[in-house]
Amino acid sequence: MDFLMRPVLAGLCHMESLDNGALDLEAFALMNDALDAKAENEDRARAVREASHG
């Protein structure tokens, strides 16, 4: 269920897209991959900031 709700909660799509089938599982996989990449980039940027203030 997290796989489907995560993009909805992140604002990438609306709940209606789940209900009416406007988006398929491939679209949800792509959105989850993008959210993972965003989180990874934010973690890396935070680590660089912390290292430079160390």
Write the layout of secondary structure elements.
Elements: H1 2-9, H2 15-20, H3 25-53
Helix pairs in contact: 1-3
Q: Gap between N and C termini, in Å?
A: 40 Å
Q: How many separate structural domains?
A: 1
Mean pLDDT: 95
Beta-strand portion reads: under 5%
Which blocks of ≥5 consecutive residues have pLDDT under 50? none
SSE topology string: HHH
Number of strands: 0
Global shape? elongated
Largest sheet: none
* Rg of Cα set: 15 Å
Structural class: mainly alpha
Instruction: State the helical fraction.
Output: over 70%
Count the DSSP helices. 3
Please, could you describe this protein's structure?
This protein has 54 residues and is an all-alpha fold. The chain has one domain (2-53). The protein has helices spanning 2-9, 15-20, 25-53.
Question: Could you give a quick summary of the protein structure above?
Answer:
The protein has helices at residues 2-9, 15-20, 25-53. The chain is mainly α and 54 residues long.
State the main characteristics.
54 residues, mainly alpha, 3 helices, 0% strand
